[in-house]
Amino acid sequence: MASLDYAHRRLVNTLGPERVARGELERMVYSHDFAALPKLVLAQWRLYPDFVVLPQTTEEVSTIVKLSDESGLPITPRGSGTGSYGGAVPNRGGVLVDMRKMNKILALDAANRTVTVEAGVPWGHLAEYVASKGMSLGLVPIAAPASTVGGAINSGVVCFGSYRHGSLRGLILDLEVVLPDGSVLHTGSGHDAPGQFGDLTSLFLGAEGTLGVVTRAVLRIDPKAEETRADAYTFRTLEDGVRFLQAIASSDLIPLHVGLVDREHFVLERAFRPATPEPADIALVALQGHKDEVVEQEKELDLLASKAGGVKMAPEAASDLWDRRFTMYGARRLSRGLVVSSNLVPVARLGEAVDAAHRLLRTMKLDGAIQAALLDPTTASFAPYVLMDDTRPSGPATLGFVKKMGDAARGLDGHPMGLGMFMVFNLAKMHGRATGFMGAVKEVFDPTRKINAGKTTEVWTKFTWPIIDTVPPFMMGLGLDLAAFLRRIKPTRDRYARAYRKIGGP
Amino acid sequence: MGLLRDWAFVEAAVRIPALRDVVREALIRAMFTRDDRVLPREIVADLGRTPAVTVKVKDDAEVRKLVEVFSGGESSVNLGLAPEDYHYFRRALSVGKDRDIGVVPRPRVLLTYDWLVPEQRGVELDFSAYAEVDFQKGAHRAVAQVGAAWKDAYDAALAAGHLVPFVPTVPLDFSIGDGVWGDAPYGSYRAEFGEYVNALRSVSAYGHRTRVGFEDVSNEGAGYDLLHAILPVASEFVVPLAVAFRLLPRPSARKTLTYGFDDPAKAAAALDRLGGSFRTPLWVHVVDGAAAGLLRPGTSSEAFTVQLSLSGSAAGLAAREKAFDVLFAGFKTKGTDVPNPFDGPADAYRKTADRVSRSLFVGEVRIPVRALPDFHAKTKALGAQAAAPASLYASLRSTGILSAFPAFEASGERHRTYELSKGVAGISEGIPGSIFVSRIAHLWDDSPGFRRRMALLQKLKMEIDASRVVQPLLRS
């Protein structure tokens, strides 16, 4: 392996000094994603990259990847780091490729309804731009204001708009990817013919940057809808809200978005935002289409809601909830940490998922809230979050919640979302005999384990000596099971929760 | 009998770089038309080796047993290793098998033609007796065994309170499996077939029951989306046994609207307006006069007929019908009682399928809907030139793309099929944004990007099918 100084010189020669960073502060910023992690994990992984680089062109990305052959440093691509499972965090240092300088919208073809963008463009910015041209993006990821195009594709995320417009897969016509050998691959034929001509686009959805660096995407866009309207309904219990969601899934309605948030979320949000609606279990439904169809659908929606015991909220309140749909984790401010457990569960078993989450929150003495959304008539995204006191030694035990909730989702014929670095133990449990196929994909695209290696299909440690260079994935699972157990036997509630209650919290 | 095998075969045959460009198309033509006089003897021998046995599958255990036997797992001294490990070591030590015996599923119906290189003395799996459809209570999803006829699944779903959301653009008597290994053109207005598929139940190349995807939920965020990447070539990676797919709730009311246009330009303009609107019919099919005559014999049709299916409440449908009348301004006739091919009795559907199947189809062309008049006129001209009158079946996607299937009144002679395919490819090349996606068009494509993707897919196949049982590639 070449020395770090040599690698630095080569990187600076390629990108210039202003786009290569190796200072302590920069490296620290890139050593984590949305997840709050205990310092203890530094014993297992070298989360701090050696260098952070900011390429601006595909050619630069290609050169950086090729340089890795000389320097021996692993490559970790990263968008804006809105993931939670370590997919965009190094495990053995190396070169972290921050894609956010590749943020140009290259072309918008209204006639053929496509937009070509670089991977570092944030979805929020892209949606605004497309709207300014009289078109619209059918889908936007739940972390759209920050989440980048490449980041969302690599995470295989849940999107607003899925119920009407389908999955993110259907939005992508072609990807430009720098493969581990530095070559540039187009994953599709460039035509609107999904699945034809050896289309490999699907493989990069949810690949977490382990197959290559996505540099460009051609996305499908739609004409702007005549009307988009949000309605919100309060329910006496969360179970009633679940029944409402299930009734929508069994109806002829095709809303843009169907979501459900429990009252705890609003209790927590009220602590720092007084204008929050009165705490209640609230379903938020957005309708889109022609005015006449929206009106017709709204009537049917009202009927379904009233059958489930729902009460319609004022239009302004619904509109406010819709406008604030991207900011769901403000409660982090209360506790200095927050953990989200993202899962997919069958719509028919959403009620059981709610029960499981409540049971876990109670037994693990956690404060948190439940959020769910319909992705299609069979699949619901189920994403409860819990607060975590990052400043206390007991805080990390909260991570056990994610493991237990993921187990519960699998027990309900669903699956947890995200593998990254921390959740690889779920892979075999989710895919069974097909797990080997996943390893085969990595082997074909990255046989020398150069790009984001040691994740998704295996767990590498920071060590390179045999035996201790990897951790059996199930051991990671055991660690989180232990965390859940410690959390369960913890005799007291969290400090922030006690302090919060003293000042009149729940 | 698949894209990867044909592709690898053609690549191996034209390995001499200097002659590559000259030889490639001539070779494909000779292979397709079986012009054995110009083909090397080895290639003729390969093309002549058809499957030795056909096995009628009634239980997945039979498939597992076959695969285990052919992979050598039963007969080899494997030192107690798991099949995956056994084959890993076998490859690592360069210990080959004497010969490969592969398994290949037999399509129930082919719209166009089969792949070129047959399963070399392997076993063909006939799934016609493996045809159950299971609907889960309380959920809108089904698991259909691959031999189940689409029409039977469609009718059974309606009886069980669901709706199969995808329909074939050309109404032939396809099985569900034909959507995976055949050329059944399933789709809906809102999405392609793959979007409705949650999982495949399959037997892996080692004889294990293997589920690819998740039967009850979609597969976002669960690692590589292998399911949708291999779906069009799934039977070259695993032996698919059943398809788990999403359904829609059975609508409270449905209505079929039929609009006749005397001018293709008016039909294209109307469809373009629909594609740019936020209306969401279940499906939108377009046929020209000749095709309409086959679908509904004895009735007079306009030059173009657009038929679409709406769902919703009875009151809502009335309002929506008016909206469609406005969108389709320019139509000459309108009918609300013209039957669609899918909702009638199974016998009637199969009779229609029988009539339609007598035409010669050469494959799918995906065109921007506004190019419909141009494409139709050129296809007609091609048919006239070849003394094979042309007709057109197509379905519209919400993206404004038309999935079009030109058909010709001609016998299924391979020469005619090849020449007409060339003609359609030429038409497609001349229309911006259009692409011909037939099987043979895949083999013609020699672009670097496609070659690269195919090389990666081929490598992936070799990893997943290391025991060389699932439609193994021919050894060069």
What does the main sheet of chain B amount to?
A: 9 strands, antiparallel
* Rg from alpha-carbon coordinates of chain B: 23 Å
Average pLDDT of chain A: 92
| Estimated structural class of chain B | alpha+beta
Overall residue-averaged pLDDT value of chain B? 92
Q: Label the structural class of chain A.
A: alpha+beta
Continuous helix count of chain A: 18
Number of helices of chain B: 16
How many angstroms does the end-to-end distance of chain A come to?
Answer: 56 Å
| Strand order, largest beta sheet of chain A | 17-14-16-15-21-22-19-24
Distance, first to last CA of chain B: 16 Å
| Coarse shape of chain A | globular
Give the DSSP E fraction of chain A (strand runs of 2 or more residues): 15-25%
Oligomeric composition of the shown chains:
heterodimer
- In terms of per-residue confidence, which ranges of chain B show pLDDT below 50 for 5 or more consecutive residues? none
- What portion of the residues of chain B fall into strands of 2 or more residues? 15-25%
Proportion of residues in helical segments of chain B: 25-40%
Shape verdict of chain B: globular
Please count the beta strands of chain B (DSSP E, at least 2 residues each).
21
Number of strands of chain A: 24
Structural summary, described in words:
- The complex is a heterodimer of chains A (506) and B (476).
- Helix content of chain A is 35%, strand content 19%.
- Chain A has 506 residues and is of the alpha+beta class.
- In chain A, the strands form six sheets. Chain A has an eight-stranded antiparallel sheet, with helices on both faces. In chain A, strands 5-6-12-10-11 form a five-stranded antiparallel sheet.
- The longest helix of chain A has 17 residues, at 291-307.
- Chain A starts with a helix and ends with a helix.
- Chain B is α+β, with helices and mostly antiparallel strands and 476 residues long.
- Chain B has 16 helices and 21 strands.
- In chain B, strands 13, 14, 15, 16, 17, 18, 19, 20 and 21 form a nine-stranded antiparallel sheet that branches.
- In chain B, a hairpin with a 5-residue loop joins strand 9 (197-203) and strand 10 (209-213).
- In chain B, helix 13 runs antiparallel to helix 14 (414-429).
- Chain B starts with a helix and ends in a 12-residue tail after the last helix.
- The relative contact order of chain B is 0.14.
- The interface between A and B is large, with 86 and 79 residues.
